[in-house]
Amino acid sequence: MKDRGIRASGVAAFAAMVALGTPAWAATTVQIGASGKTYASSTVGCAGAPATAQLSPVVEAGLFNPKKNTSADILLNGTTVAKVTSDAPSSNVWLGDGANTVVVELSKKTADAYTFVVQPGLCTLPDTSGNTFSADGTLEYAASGKSYATVTPGCAVNGATGLAQPYINLMDNGTYILNVSVNGKPLTQLSATRPHTPVFLSAGQNVISAANGYLSVDYYVRDGGDGTCALP
Predict the structure, then answer these.
(1) What angle do CA 144, 146, 151 make, to 5 degrees?
(2) Residue 208 and residue 220 in contact, taking contact as beta carbons nearer than 8 Å
(3) How far is it, in rounded angstroms, from Cα 94 to Cα 76?
(4) Residue of 32, 104, 155, 163 with fewest CB within 10 Å of its CB?
């Protein structure tokens, strides 16, 4: 069960990091609310919405280590969208473009709020049909010929989070200056002095871009699963 897996591998590992006031961002794929009783995804993912089967922005929210018979309402922008219980402690929350506030309300006095901003087109996958693959299928080359990336994600500890996460390697295929972003967030710059970089994947679909100024933009799409992995 996905929500129980996430709580076991991520949330429970950092319960001691909870602080009062605002949600406590932890070095993992989830964040715990100020009450210490709820959690939500730390970033927005993309998944197929049940109603449309289209890739749509989504986060997971629910109860953190709930006691028996605990329940809570989940609200999106003031409207109740789900109810979670100790038996079914999490729910997907589908977001719209712009600012979204997800509230996990245990009672009128105890509620945690999480804010997410969805950029328009976040879950619109770029056209990568012009990309080609090596004969053995291990490398994907951008249509521009300026970069290439490994196809199958590996598993390593992400120094930024301290967790084992899936990753791919992105390489400069020359001496180009390439500005690398993941899901619209700048990551690093590749050049002759830094010709390659690992790109760690978050949960769901990840869009990796490598822009050579205004001349070209290379795109790669990789599925990060639940954003975690097991080291060999």
Answers:
(1) 90
(2) yes
(3) 9
(4) 155
